[in-house]
Each structure stands twice: as C-alpha cells, then as structure tokens.
Amino acid sequence: MAAYKMYIGGEWVGADSYFDTIDPATEKAIARFPLGDRKHVDMAAGAAKDALPGWSRTPPPKRGLILQKAADILRIEKERLGRLVATEMGKVLPEALGDVQEAIDTFEYFAGEGRRLYGHTTTSELKDKFCMTIRRPVGVVGLITPWNFPTAIPAWKLAPALVCGNTVIFKPSSDTPLCAYEMVKVLIKAGVPPGVVNFVTGPASSVGEAIVKHPEIEGLSFTGSKATGEWITKNAGLKKVGLELGGKNPIIVMDDARLDLAVDGILWGAFGTTGQRCTATSRVIAHQKIKPRLLSALVTRARMLRLGPGVQKTSDVGPLINKAAQEKTGKYVGIGINEGAKLLCGGNKPAGRGFFFKPTIFDDVSPDMRIAREEIFGPVLSVIGFDTLDEAIDIANSVEYGLSSSIYTGDIGSAFRAIERIESGITYINSSTIGAEVHLPFGGVKGTGHTREAGIHGLDEFSNIKTIYIDYSGKLQKAQIDVD
Q1: CATH (domain of 72)
Q2: Other C-beta atoms within 10 Å of 418: how many?
Q3: Are 454 and 363 contained in the same domain?
C-alpha cells in the first residue's frame, strides 16, 4: 500500500503519523496519508503568503491559461481519475466520471474568466471625475472540501480562487485524500508555481481548526455540515467566509404531473450517489390524488436497483462512505419507524462486506417527523401527502435548510408560484433536485448558508471589490457637499 505526502511550498512533505483511506465497497485500505497538524498549516500559510505577491501580479489571462491546461490534463486522465473516484468515494462509475467532467468544465469556465474578471464603470455626480470598480484577491485562502464530490468540489473552489489571484491551503476530507492528491498533481503539471497551492491532509480537530483560526489566512471556503459551518462562523474572526452547508430538498408532485418523469427524477435525486448529496431528494411532497400510484411505481423501481462497488458496471447504487454513515442511516430508519412512518422498502444493510444500505422509502410521513426535517445523507426518502399547492409549499419551507427544490407539474401557474415562494437557492421545474451547471451559481438560503459557488458569482467568493475614483478636474471636489 502506497504512502503519500503533503505538498507545501513546492515540496512534498511527510509527517510522524499516517492514516489510511478506505475503499467503502470492500472496507480495505488503499493508501496512506500524513496526519498533518498545526505546524504543517503554519508552514503552508507561510509558503502561501510568500507566493502571494508574485501570483497576484501575474496577469489574470496567464493565470487562466494554467487553469485551461489543468482542464486539458484532466480530460486526458478522465477515465483513470473517474475510476479512482468510484473506488475511494464509492459512487457508481457514470457518476464518478461525471465528477471529473464537472472539474474539467469548472477549470475551463474559470480559465475564460481570466480574460474578464469584470468590474463596473459608472457615472460620477461631479464633473471631470471617473468611477469604476476592480477585483482584487482576498489573499491567502483556506479551502476545506468534503468527500462526496472529491474532484468536482475542490475544482469549484480552486479554480475561482486561483484565477482571482489568491494563494491556497487545500485540506480535503480524510475519506478521499487520494482524489485530492491527484488534483494537486494536475495543478502542478499545469504550471501552478510553488507555494500557490499547498495541500495539507489530516483531521478537522487539528488541521481544519488551525486553518479556520490562522491569522495569516484571510479567506475560507467550506462545504460540509451545518454544525461545522456554525462553528466556523464563531471561530474564523474577520476572515471572508463562504459556507455551503446541508439540505433537506423537496420534490413537489402535482396531480397534473407526468408521473413517469417524476419517478425518474425522484429515484435519481434520492438514490443517486447513495443519497450522499447536499442536493439529494430526501422528501417527496405528493398530491393525494396521485400519491398511491406514485408510491407504487417508486417502490417497484427502488427494489430493482442493484447495489455494488462503484467500479462495477452493473451497480446502480454504491456504498455509503464509511461505517459511521451506514450506522447513521440505520439509526434514522429506526427513528422513522418509532415516529410512526410506514417503511415500504429497504431499511437495512445487505449481508456481506462494504458500507452498503438498501434504498429506503417511507410513507405516512408527517412534516414534523425527524426523518422529514433532519439531513440523513443516505438513501432514505420520505413521502408526505398534500391537498393544495399552498400546503405543499408550506411543507417544503418547513425545514431549516434551503438549497434545492423541485416541482413536477403541467401548469405554468403552479410552476411560477413554486419559483416565487419556495425558500431555496435553486428550483427545478419538471426535473430532479440535482445537477448544477458550472456557469450558473450554486448555493442556498437559511441553514444552508448564503454562499454562491460556480458561475460569475463564484468570483465574488474569492475576490474583494475595490472602488477607484479618478478626478481630472485639477481642483479639490467634494461629493455630497453643496458648493456654490
């Protein structure tokens, strides 16, 4: 089993202790990584600070060219890296390849932003005066990424951070450090200078906390749980902080919906990535007139889904990421049963090795049940009935999260009422709750946080706006002060 190193200041660095990364389908270790600590974060912060002047003064189009080269390398390596995602994270191969493709698309998009990085020009209230805004880098930024999109989400953060001229300390999840390591290797090969990207592995209790609290780090971007996001908010000081947290995403199915289309979308949203997406469909809010037919189709199709290793072509649903996730999912099934929900299918792990869990559907769920309110992050779907659209929207809004949402309907009025009234950062019409496109903003409201990643708004997370006034009048002019 290979032992890997961290990357700090252009050098590969080891540590006194190491941890294993596990294939969740077999429970076997596949690689060893350093248990970094606060001293490694100090080293990385120092290297990033030293590299900042040179990188921030590199013309943005040249920074963009490096991102484009990274995209080209990822495209060549897509099959190999996709299989790695399927092995280390566990998602099935088509999704794993999509994870890498999303990273390719992200680097290509932000490579183009190197030719833009738009500010604004506007008029002045005074004569002979010019006004504009420009973007400046935040400085040294810490990027803390999750395991569920181990190639795509690092790209979401690295690409805009780098094109804006920041230097980076990148801490991946300890469940998927090998995917992150390969991303760093791609950036090195693409020509990112030493110190611009620093890669530190290790636990949140040492590495993550040190990044959040470090005085030399001026910006943070975190994707993960709401509880951790709240802790970061309390401990980051005056850093610029971006948080993309959890979701409890609803699909509303109206009585005029195409049920075949809705069933396809629900199954993909609920059980794709084994339910381990912040955008996963965890609630279906179904009109009472069509609910029995919808449930019958969902249960029939869910029972047909084949569990297996992500790299196996016949697998429809891969394993959960680790034993704790498997146990948590089982715990919530027990909670649902005790609350009075009706278990229609699934509800347990299959025999054998691997952190698998059968696709699970509950009926007779009320909006106040824990399985309808709390993020499970596993293949568990709660179905809730309703009679009117107003009731359905109220149910959709009754949770603390607000990331993604969907409505299946043939009525344009219902669609637009849902668009206007559902409290979420994303609303789909006649499609599932997942599937971000990299040129559009991604993020939520309420307990999900208010960060917008991807698209032009992704630049806002990693740049500061500087306002410029050029007075060519040849005299002292005073705005907002009356002068005769």
Answers
A1: 3.40.605.10
A2: 24
A3: no
